Amino acid sequence: MTDRAQQKARLRAECLAARDRLPAQERIDKSLAIADHGLSAVEIEPGEIVSGFTPIRSEADIRPLMSGLKAKGTLLCLPVILDKTTIVFRELRTDRELIPMGFGTFGPGPDCAELDPSVMLVPLAGFDAEGQRIGYGGGYYDRAIERLHRKGFSPRLIGIAFDCQEVASVPAEPHDMRLHAVLTESGLRRFNS
């Protein structure tokens, strides 16, 4: 493991521990604030494809935000784990059940269309003021974003976190994909990208 990877692993553990320490009711309140800020600050056109996620462990619950975006006419999709290295995004439909995807996640089944999002709401463990993010260590999102770039898409990447997950500096590695913005309970912060 490289020195940067070791630093990221240490920061990941610290950020996740800080997030885990938030009381459940506080996480709910902060998640609702994230939804309110997101619905007023994130510029999304009707018909745009937005990837979200269902919360695991102590993550922010963005289902209220996704519901609000759906009401504004967006097409929603969720990540689906295909194998140990790959996620794709499938349409989130109200007439289809979500199925277990592993790691405590749920996503649309194979009967739902695979979509290429133009806006991605990205879960994370930590972030810094430069828009660098620490994921969960599997590289799924970095590879998915790179695959979208190869297909000619440049999705806007909006990290979703609580304020307590911010660190002074993320030791970025060459494969890391920088965020365009981060959305927390304090609002939307855009980064120069």
TrEMBL record:
Segments forming a coiled coil: none
Keywords of this entry: ATP-binding, Ligase, Magnesium, Metal-binding, Nucleotide-binding
GO molecular function: 5-formyltetrahydrofolate cyclo-ligase activity
Entry EC number(s): 6.3.3.2
Protein name according to UniProt: 5-formyltetrahydrofolate cyclo-ligase
Cofactor(s) annotated in UniProt: Mg(2+)
Signal peptide: none
Source species, domain of life: Bacteria
Root EC class: ligase
InterPro entries referenced in this protein's UniProt entry, alphabetically: FTHF_cligase, FTHF_cligase-like_sf, NagB/RpiA_transferase-like
Family statement: Belongs to the 5-formyltetrahydrofolate cyclo-ligase family.
